[in-house]
Write a structure and sequence with these properties.
elongated, 2 strands, Multidrug-efflux Transporter Regulator, Chain: A, Domain 2, 2 domains, 5 helices, two-stranded antiparallel ribbon
Length: 131
């Protein structure tokens, strides 16, 4: 019988490639269980390590933290997919672009720039220009 592996915060951060500050944030927001025990004896387990890997995987699939929390909670009502807010950009009578709201400011700036470029190209084509 092997003894279960225990980690302090620094070891868990190193093993999971997740900063300690992020781990604390996940605990505070309910995405990750707190450490086992309290004070100097507090420690983290393989279960914590697996949960951090799961969070990282789901983020890699494009889920936001709120969606991860909802998708992985234990209660059926809480496991419903989180609602999504979409912003609609109408570029013409026949063209609409939908963008999920809540992105980071730099990403929103990139998306708006791309939409503006597409609108210019569409406008040139409607006006008889060539591209």
């Amino acid at each position: 019988m092997t003894e279960a592996r225990h980690y302090n915060l620094a070891e868990l951060a190193r093993q999971s490639a997740t900063p300690g500050r992020t781990i604390r944030y996940y605990i505070a927001s309910g995405l990750l269980e707190g450490p086992v025990g309290a004070g100097r004896g507090a420690h983290y387990t393989e279960q914590h390590l697996r949960r951090l890997a799961e969070i990282r995987k789901l983020q890699g699939e494009g889920l936001m933290l709120a969606e991860i929390a909802a998708a992985t909670s234990g209660s059926p009502a809480e496991s419903l997919p989180a609602g999504r807010v979409w912003v609609e950009y109408e570029l013409g009578e026949d063209v609409k672009v939908l963008v999920r709201d809540g992105g980071s400011p730099w990403r929103v700036k990139q998306i708006r720039g791309g939409i503006a470029e597409l609108a210019r190209k569409l406008d040139r084509r409607d006006g008889g220009g060539t591209d």
